Amino acid sequence: MPKGEINMNYDLVINNGLVILDSEELLTDVAVKDGKIAAIGSDLGDAKEVVDAKGLIVSPGMVDAHVHITEPASGYRDDWEGYLTGTAASAKGGVTSFIEMPLNQVPATVDKKSLDIKYAAGEGKLAVDVASFGGLVPFNLETGIQELKDGGVAAYKCFMATCGDRSIEGDFMNVDDYSLYAGMQEIAKTGKVLAIHAENAQITDKLGEIAYANGESTLAAYVATRPVFTEVEPIRRAILLAKETGCRIHICHVACHEGVEEIYQARKDGVDVTCETCTHYLYFDTSELDDIGNVVKCSPPIRDKAQQTALWEQIKDGKIDFVTSDHSPCTPDLKAAPNAFDAWGGIAGLQNNVDVLFDEGVQKRDLPLTTFAKIIATNPADRYGLDTKGRIQVGKDADFVLIKPNSSYTVTPEGLEYKNKISPYVGREINAQVARTILRGTTIYTLEDGVQNVGQGEFIKL
Ligand SMILES: [Zn+2]
């Protein structure tokens, strides 16, 4: 376009930022029209809204492929994270879309009826776009898998570790080996991916019982009941069943480099398997757990510094496909138990993905910006078929996070948008900040004015 021509056809132009594209980063401008990226280049002309991104990184908005929202909760977990607070935290954290897990909400999302209940519960409350996992449980093999596909889920999720509260009707439930096998056969027919929580249920349960009976109560003792091999063994089992059934699989929140290596080798051998790790495994290590307390309890557990260093290397090597928050908060009372074994396992981290990963990865470990964009946005969008998301490219949704590098701040409870303002990141100094978040061309957060334009988000139905 000739220089100086006023093009009021664009709704928004983002000028002067360092824009992360698929294979390079460029100091350039990006234009948006009707919620889509319309042009990338210099001298794009004027627009209805102009954002000056000088000194900022313009990244695709994060696609967090592992988030738990507990709504509806049907009187059981009503004070846990909801859509309003969860998606507001997402906006503030630079996460423009996430894929919501099928558990913790009551009823769990395992068939058409429960999926419709969930969509209704989120109606009008979303600050960002939300796609859904459907659950694979021992009791939905007959018709549930197909109903969930028809209802637009992006993928499926199951637990090989024990989960769910059997005193709550409609709560989620882990698979046994048979229902995992039969479920994979059903899911293979849909062509979608099955995401798996891979920990050996029997061994971790029993080691936990023994430690508890012996009066163990620390987080260090809890970690010891979930050793590395209890992650690696079910990863192998899942890969074997995937080979047998032709089901595409993804291993969630891998916390050990041995697990990642298994997945990488299987992929080289032709198995359709990918994996994620979580921001907290890349940030916390076992040396600090009992000082932080139960707020950092999760499963698989936080591991030692050597594991963390190895996971960062595997991210650089492309062996870990993407990073998620596994945002899984609860109420403060469930974290207050004096005995770590009694506390709820789950970390509130949705709001601190982008800043922590930028600071720890790009700034401290020289992670290339292109790799950063792949692990937070491009790879999860591609893996789960969110075709309009995940990259800055003409025609894609205009979802951006503008990052202010080398800008230090301390995480405070008041700064958290979560319903329950607890997180292991509280008190931590992070040397990068989300300056602005844009969802399909609309600014939904700025550092100056906070979360805005709530209600712009939509459920993504595939
Ligand atoms: Zn989870």
The distinct ligands, each listed once, are:
zinc ion
State the low-pLDDT regions, or none: 1-5
Instruction: Report the C-alpha radius of gyration, rounded.
Output: 21 Å
What share of the residues lie within helices? 25-40%
Mean pLDDT over the residues: 96
Strand content: 15-25%
**Main beta sheet, described?**
9 strands, mixed
Give the count of helical stretches: 12
Outline type = globular
In terms of structural class, how would the helical and strand content be classed? Answer: alpha/beta
* H and E order: EEEEEEHEHEHEHEHHHEHEHHEHHEEEE
Question: How many β strands by DSSP?
Answer: 17
From the N-terminal CA to the C-terminal CA, the straight-line distance is 36 Å
Characteristic key phrases:
binds zinc ion, globular, alpha/beta, disordered N terminus, 462 residues, 17 strands, single chain, 8-stranded parallel sheet
Question: What does this molecule look like?
Answer:
This protein is of the alpha/beta class and 462 residues long. Helix content is 29%, strand content 22%. Strands 1, 2, 3, 4, 5, 14, 15, 16 and 17 form a 9-stranded mixed sheet that branches. Strands 6-7-8-9-10-11-12-13 form an 8-stranded parallel sheet. Helix 4 crosses helix 7 and helix 7 packs parallel to helix 8. The longest helix is centred in the middle third of the chain and has 17 residues. The N terminus is likely disordered. Zinc ion (ZN) binds next to loops.
